[in-house]
Amino acid sequence: MPVADDIQSSWADEVEIDQGALPPPSEVVENGLKIVTEYKYDNDNKKVKIVRTYKIEKRVVSKSIAKRKTWSKFGDSANDKPGPNPATTNVSEDVYMQFITSKEESQRTDDGELDGLKPQSSSVIYKCRTCQGEHWTLSCPFKNSEIVMAKANEAAKAAEVKTTTTNKYIAPNLREGAARNLPREPPGPRRDDTTAIRISNLSNFAVEADLDDLVRGFGPVQKLYLAKEKSTGQCKGFAYVHFKFRADAAKAIQTLNGYGYDHLILNVEWSKPPQNN
Amino acid sequence: MKPLMLQGHERAITQIKYNREGDLLFSAAKDAKPNVWWSLNGERLGTFNGHGGVVWCLDVDWQTINLITGGGDSSCRLWDLETGKNIATIKTNSSVRTCNFSYSAYQAAYTTDKAMRHPCEVFIIDTRTVDDSISSQSPILKWEITDSKVTSMVWGTLDETIITGHEAGDLIQWDLRTGKKIHSVKEHNHQINDMQLSRDGTMFITASKDQTAKLFDTSSLELLKEYKTERPVNSAALSPILDHVVLGGGQDAMEVTTTSTRQGKFDARFFHLVFEEEFGRVKGHFGPINSLAFHPDGKSYASGGEDGYVRVQSFDQSYFDYTFDYNRD
């Protein structure tokens, strides 16, 4: 601080003067630690205090190394103080080795970042809902064959079980024999919905991150969509999740349907293709 | 572990090396001042000021008394390590691409580029007494390389041979008594960027722009192992204590700006020496790695990148606990 003049300066000036002087740097050595404190101005002209803590270690080394330790610095480092100069030596953030166990995995990590952007398979983006083959359901060779029958039977059985075990109210569209159980022709080339699930009865305060937390454990997710009110940005109470694999989606439905989340009971089902109007 | 980041250079690192005991780490870059660091805490011991341009290569003798550097300013220089003084300067016709002391440091070899109507040449000089007389002394042996130029070089066993790696991918072993070829193999089909000996000198590893690194027998140049990647390999080093190999590389510097860091694949990759399979990666640089070196105790390694940083990374316990699972089918 400069010595005060005879003329009383205004408080605003005093702040200015205060800023001009930086406290002197200090160096303290105590219990094996060296603590260096410095002050400087950052880019926004704000005063910054920098505290660096060094651990002092003693090591036993061979004679030749010990002799080299006595060498004095030269070249551009000639004026450096003993110890690392922060201008040239820094400790960077922790970096850990990532272990790779097999070849397939190494390839997966290679293009993992772009996976989400690629179409699911190279050229075929549709899948038969009867036999999961790479053709339209309409042209399925197993159409009207045993598989379809078996499936229909299964569906009927499942519906039976449902009606017998629950006494709860069931919405008309969910009731046995409702339109969703009937095989429907795909309306045209659209996104593969076979791996998509619909989560409803979500709380109004749910955000994408909550949803992500909820479904991430089941497998790789292709797309998350949380329906939101346009004006308020609040959740409308339902969301769609596209998994990469159908098996993961099935697992998610099994676990999450009826799961209590945010004081509400979730309702999870397969996503229905859009209605044909 | 937290890596040490050494920021002594303004431009891309060209070569880094530890001395025999591993207490000092040397780095050369495309700026004119090679640096020397204490490897333990990253403190800079000094810089070697004198070159007038890119420094392509450096080597330190086994007693850590002298340093030899070669650069794009058409000179090969010898330095006193204790004071950092330039003892001798050998003027050459074109830039010096590689330079190495022999194990005994009684001799040193350096090679020059084919440029400015001068051929690529190999020089062997006497370095038993390092003083100013070396500047004017004529080499013990020198010979011309007529085909593709030398891009890397190591000394063979007992200081009797040197092995050169060429721009076209050839490896040639030379007899130092006659300056004649003993063996010549062509296992790489692109430039050999780096060659490093194993701890006992019986094997060496090459790093090539053809996206592979290969392990050779030093005396017969027999190909022993191959490590494949999907990017040019700029440097490869052999662990002195474990059967591990570390590879560093990345796409060409000129292509870096057009792709994301993740895609650039700038991490150091660890392969098993025998099974040729990758088992680990370490991230860090945001440009290709140009040079790698294992600490002689095998417990840390250093990498120098196109980004101008040298990173000294100590291994965590997990690295030493890791065992390569080879019972798998």
Automatic annotation (TrEMBL), chain A:
Region span, Disordered: 1-24
Highest taxon of source: Eukaryota
Domain RRM span(s) in chain numbering: 195-273
Cellular compartments annotated: Cytoplasm
Main localization, broad class: cytoplasm
GO molecular function, one term: RNA binding
Keywords carried by this UniProt record: Cytoplasm, Initiation factor, Protein biosynthesis, RNA-binding
Gene3D superfamilies referenced in this protein's UniProt entry, alphabetically: 3.30.70.330
Gene Ontology CC terms: eukaryotic 43S preinitiation complex; eukaryotic 48S preinitiation complex; eukaryotic translation initiation factor 3 complex
Any one GO BP annotation for this protein: formation of cytoplasmic translation initiation complex
PANTHER family linked to this entry: EUKARYOTIC TRANSLATION INITIATION FACTOR 3 SUBUNIT G
Stated family: Belongs to the eIF-3 subunit G family.
Main function: RNA-binding component of the eukaryotic translation initiation factor 3 (eIF-3) complex, which is involved in protein synthesis of a specialized repertoire of mRNAs and, together with other initiation factors, stimulates binding of mRNA and methionyl-tRNAi to the 40S ribosome. The eIF-3 complex specifically targets and initiates translation of a subset of mRNAs involved in cell proliferation. This subunit can bind 18S rRNA.
Subunit structure: Component of the eukaryotic translation initiation factor 3 (eIF-3) complex.
Designated name of the protein: Eukaryotic translation initiation factor 3 subunit G
Organism: Parnassius mnemosyne
TrEMBL record, chain B:
Keywords: Cytoplasm, Initiation factor, Protein biosynthesis, Repeat, WD repeat
SMART domains: WD40 (SM00320)
Protein's UniProt keywords contain Repeat: yes
WD repeats by residue range: 6-37, 48-89, 185-226, 282-312
Cellular compartments per GO CC: eukaryotic 43S preinitiation complex; eukaryotic 48S preinitiation complex; eukaryotic translation initiation factor 3 complex, eIF3m
Domain of life: Eukaryota
GO molecular function: RNA binding; translation initiation factor activity
The keyword Cell wall biogenesis/degradation belongs to this UniProt entry's keyword annotation: no
GO biological process: formation of cytoplasmic translation initiation complex
Localisation: Cytoplasm
Transmembrane segments: none
InterPro entries named among the record's database cross-references: eIF3i, WD40_repeat_CS, WD40_rpt
Family, as annotated: Belongs to the eIF-3 subunit I family.
Oligomer status and interactors: Component of the eukaryotic translation initiation factor 3 (eIF-3) complex.
Stated role: Component of the eukaryotic translation initiation factor 3 (eIF-3) complex, which is involved in protein synthesis of a specialized repertoire of mRNAs and, together with other initiation factors, stimulates binding of mRNA and methionyl-tRNAi to the 40S ribosome. The eIF-3 complex specifically targets and initiates translation of a subset of mRNAs involved in cell proliferation.
Record PANTHER family: EUKARYOTIC TRANSLATION INITIATION FACTOR 3 SUBUNIT I
Protein name: Eukaryotic translation initiation factor 3 subunit I
Organism field: Parnassius apollo
